[in-house]
Task: structure prediction
Amino acid sequence: MNELTGNDLQISDAIVACQLDGKGGMLPLVQAEVPHEARSCWLHLNYTQRASADWLMSTPLLPDNVRDALAGDSMRPRVNRMGDGTMITLRSVNLNSEARPDQLVVIRIFINDRLIVSTRRRKVFAVDEVLNDLRNGNGPKDGGGWLVDICDALTDHTSEFIEQLHDKIIELEDAVVGQQVPPRGELALIRKQLIIMRRYMAPQRDVYARLASEKLPWMSDDDRRRMQDIADRLGRGLDDLDASVARTGILSDEINSVLAEAMNRRTYTMSLLAMLFLPGTFLTGLFGVNLGGIPGGSWPLGFGMFCLTLVVMVSGVAVWLKLRKWL
Result:
């Protein structure tokens, strides 16, 4: 890798441009100053900004095969050794306003023993957490620690979102037990979020496990141990996702059962009502024909007696249904 100077790392629209001071803090990158060789420099860029995009495409500090990856071509979580460094693509829960958490954001990282370049389009809140730790003097001391802290923050956000989905499923289960049907589309949205998280977090867990197992020169044994702990924690989250997917399947079956039972009750009620009024319907149809010889047609009390007969017949049918325990 070429020798670093302050001029090489001056980007007008960089989100973060600093050097780790080796004590948990950070130092600004001063133009024309040669950064300390034993400390990693960190650039965090929005690759849609013009100055950042031009720097990514022109700087001699990055291998040619890294430029496109940092500029937004890579999406699925992965890790690749490239040149003297490592290219890492990670996904994060979307905590930006007016966005669903399952609309995951991407952070792309190229890291070696001297330089850390991370890029994004939409804001990644894990970066802000690490940056705040550096400003407070309790952040990572080197590149390996920086990567572990980023992965730890990403996993924390993922675990919190999985816990939120878990709570929503419990609420739905309680509602279904109380014979309440959730609003249309709510269960489908939860299942979609579970599937999306499962799809991207499984390879991300593999990325963490690979980083923990490979002997990267800029990662210490303690960093690898912490990374393995993060991989295990994300693995437990994936187990929760699998269980939640199964629970939503059972919920869907229960909701269909509740709806079918409600429909059957309505159909049963309508059938009983039809049976109650069937004799009356028959008689009214019979006496409604426009033909001569209808009994009581000339009797002044004929209509009253006819209504009384209908009431008696309906009551008799109701009593019969009650005795048969259909009502």
Notes: Strands lie at 16-20, 26-28, 41-46, 78-82, 85-92, 105-111, 115-120. The first helix runs from residue 50 to 58. The helical segments are 50-58, 64-73, 125-136, 143-177, 186-213, 221-287, 302-323.
